[in-house]
Write a structure and sequence with these properties.
Largest sheet: none
Mean pLDDT: 89
Distance between the termini: 57 Å
Helix content: 55-70%
Low-confidence stretches: none
Radius of gyration: 32 Å
Strand content: under 5%
Number of helices: 8
Length: about 160
């Protein structure tokens, strides 16, 4: 049994088909074409509503504004973290965790990034200290509130 193509069935649904009676006769014995017509009618019904034609998506400008605001926040966090790391990472490495806990505003994403950057520099001269700095970065990362940052930022 031959089936009608989509264009022919859409014409039937729209009421513009010159062979409507043939299609009706065919659908009485062909479930596949009858199902296609039901689907086409659903699509046509949706396309007749105003909602299908109105763009309610948020303006891309809001996304750009949010990204720029977060980039500035991250930059400030990294500057503060660099200052804090300079103060914390002095003396014996055994003192560093306590100093970091006592530092205000140290539990931030910028601190994790700064600690990882410092560990990369320190590893050439003192692998043990680089490991200690990496452990601090992991501790801070584990304490971050994922709701305060974009999801991919904390995961990274």
């Amino acid at each position: 049994m031959a089936h009608y193509d989509d264009e022919t069935l859409f014409q039937y649904v729209e009421g513009t088909s010159p062979i409507a009676s043939e299609i009706e006769l065919h659908m009485s014995s062909c479930d596949a074409c009858a199902d296609e017509v039901v689907g086409h009618r659903e699509i046509a019904d949706v396309l007749r509503t105003a909602d299908a034609w109105e763009d309610e998506s948020p303006a891309p400008r809001r996304f750009v504004v949010d990204v720029v605001a977060f980039a500035e926040r991250a930059r400030v966090e990294e500057l503060n973290a660099a200052r804090i790391c300079t103060e914390v990472l002095t003396g014996p490495s055994a003192w560093w965790p306590q100093r970091l806990r006592q530092a205000s505003n140290a539990q931030i994403g910028g601190m994790v990034k700064e600690l990882i950057d410092r560990a990369r520099v320190i590893i050439d001269t003192s692998p043990a200290n680089a490991l200690a700095v990496t452990a601090l970065a992991i501790d801070v990362a584990n304490e971050l509130d994922v709701n305060e940052y974009p999801c991919d930022y904390v995961v990274k």
